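FAQ

Q: What does a record look like?
A: Structure on top, sequence underneath. For example:
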């Protein structure tokens, strides 16, 4: 059993911020090279609408159907076990794969600031973070909340320090491969990277089963997370390329540190740049914590429902799903060797396939189960969900610039998972057929 009433709304907000905040230190900046700053700004505002609307839909669903399975449970309730299973697989896979990218970005910052990184740092990260999760959800979320707060303070400090160095000419200077400052093609190219500033905030719904009074804590926590992330996203989007230049920032693994240590700002070796860089490491670690949390709960919930092997549904004495946590480490660590831009696009593609079904589940549950108790109701929810569906289709189309080998790997994984579902359904059917009816 998971531990009940362990999380208040500040920890829910901390989880939502921590899930996303690493994307504001690294990853989003690749969009600058793909389409230039103005296209990236427009794409960012569109993705804020998408992810904010999605998170609010999930806030309503999470109070109506509180479960560690989160989005998997919503899709299953609306469309049946097979669709629910596929959504759960896509979500768990995206979160697990994302730990590899988080580890890579942490190493980029530690190498720039401290002069060390590579496999020793990656192995230590997985060992320590999974070890803390094994200690208990309260401990893990407490540390995640602290790391998330430090990261937000670092982002705001970065904005204050860099604002005097921002120049409009830096923002409007186009990369060599971009021909127009504003175009549909440019916005389209930026979309998979712009969503990185907000993506996975909806996974906060996986905490509903462990939240104290979900009807109050879930919407309050999610709304606080969305508001904070929108402010910090605009800070980095304006201040980093505005001071450091689009090309320098757009090609860096540690864009905020690169912008601050550039000659036009504070110069190489600046103590303030190192402080902000350390904040970036905290933010990336916070996201690492949160990805491990959300992925382990997804795997646990699906195993508990008989969709994955039973051993994944076990918990230890401290109420933590230890087999799921160990599996995440076994998958995520090797994936940290893959190009982070490729991993990012894979995560975005997987999660946006989930988003289609989450918005669809929201609309279907709203119409088919109107009497379901909803402690939180989203005003204009149906309109928001339809708009979100349209934007999600745009993101999915934009992700097919993904590396062919990664697309093949994802397709093979899904084929194996579908085979697993069919096999389990067949074994369950045989089990039901062999039961002796009770005529007494």
């Amino acid at each position: 059993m998971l531990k009940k009433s362990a999380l208040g709304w500040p920890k829910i907000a901390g989880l939502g911020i921590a899930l996303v905040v690493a994307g504001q230190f690294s990853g989003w900046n690749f969009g600058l090279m793909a389409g230039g700053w103005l296209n990236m700004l427009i794409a960012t505002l569109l993705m804020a609408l998408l992810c904010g609307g999605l998170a609010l839909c999930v806030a309503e669903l999470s109070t109506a159907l509180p479960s560690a399975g989160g989005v998997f449970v919503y899709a299953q309730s609306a469309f049946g076990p097979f669709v629910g299973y596929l959504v759960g697989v896509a979500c768990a896979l995206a979160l697990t794969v994302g730990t590899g990218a988080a580890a890579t970005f942490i190493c980029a910052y530690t190498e720039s600031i401290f002069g060390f990184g590579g496999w020793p740092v990656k192995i230590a990260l997985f060992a320590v973070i999974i070890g803390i999760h094994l200690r208990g959800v309260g401990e893990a979320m407490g540390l995640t909340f602290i790391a998330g707060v430090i990261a937000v303070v670092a982002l705001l400090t970065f904005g204050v320090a860099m604002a005097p160095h921002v120049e409009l000419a830096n923002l409007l200077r186009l990369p060599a491969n971009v021909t127009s400052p504003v175009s549909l093609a440019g916005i389209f190219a930026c979309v998979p990277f712009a969503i990185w500033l907000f993506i996975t905030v909806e996974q906060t719904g996986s905490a509903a089963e462990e939240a104290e009074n979900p009807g109050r804590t879930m919407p309050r926590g999610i709304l606080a997370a969305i508001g904070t992330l929108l402010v910090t996203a605009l800070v980095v989007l304006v201040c980093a390329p505005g001071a450091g230049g689009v090309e320098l920032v757009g090609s860096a693994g540690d864009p905020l540190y690169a912008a601050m240590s550039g000659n036009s700002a504070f110069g190489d070796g600046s103590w303030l740049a190192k402080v902000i860089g350390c904040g970036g490491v905290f933010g990336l670690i916070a996201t690492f914590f949160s990805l491990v949390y959300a992925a382990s709960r997804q795997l646990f919930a699906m195993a508990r429902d008989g969709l994955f092997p039973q051993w994944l549904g076990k918990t230890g004495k401290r109420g933590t799903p230890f087999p799921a946590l160990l599996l995440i480490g076994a998958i995520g660590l090797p994936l940290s060797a893959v190009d982070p831009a490729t991993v990012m696009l894979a995560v975005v593609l997987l999660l946006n396939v989930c988003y289609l079904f989450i918005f669809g589940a929201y609309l279907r549950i709203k119409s088919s189960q109107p009497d379901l108790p909803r402690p939180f109701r989203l005003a204009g929810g149906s309109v928001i969900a339809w708009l979100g569906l349209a934007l999600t289709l745009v993101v999915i189309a934009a992700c097919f610039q993904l590396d062919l080998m990664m697309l093949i790997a994802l397709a093979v994984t899904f084929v194996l998972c579908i085979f697993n579902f069919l096999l389990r359904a067949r074994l369950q059917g045989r089990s039901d057929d062999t039961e002796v009816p009770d005529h007494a």
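Q: Is there anything notable about this one?
A: The two ends are 35 Å apart (CA to CA).
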